[in-house]
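haha ok so turns out i had the wrong file open the whole time. this is the CORRECT one, sorry everyone. sequence first:
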Amino acid sequence: MDEVMVGWARRVAEVELGDALPRRWAHSQGVAARAAEVGQILGKDADLLVAAATLHDVGYAPRLAATGFHPLDGARFLRDAHGADERLVRLVANHSFALLEAEERGLWEELAAEFPLLEEPLLVDALVYCDMRTTPDGRRTTAQERVAEILGRYGADSIVGRFIRRAAPEIFAAVEQVEAALAAQPR
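then structure:
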């Protein structure tokens, strides 16, 4: 991964989200900004994190919404239409504990078989951190406020509401792991 990949990711996400879903695009830009800030904990994978952060919600684009489950739709688009890097595609497919939501939607087996979770906990947690520390408008927030906002927007009994309640402890643990890694960095 490198700056070329980051630029490509930005162009793809902007084309797919910019006009169709400007608020989602603002969120994606905010998530990418968080990724650029925390990338130092990942060394050579810093640009991979920024690219994944930029593209994590591309599956919300109306023309890409085949299943209605944005992690799966986005990952398939990146793989099939762009031949994107496998690690990037797997990060997008599994961002922010997507397997738990896939289970709620009856898509767990499909997502797990097609896009296995990366065995790179800090990288996976870093994307969770960036997503869950960014509001829908791209501003900074806490993970607790973000989970509450998602619950309020979708409703506690919706698929997303059930998922986010189940995922909340794991989200908070992932955010804590990244915060600990950041605190351990030399100043």
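The two ends are 25 Å apart (CA to CA).
again sry for the mixup
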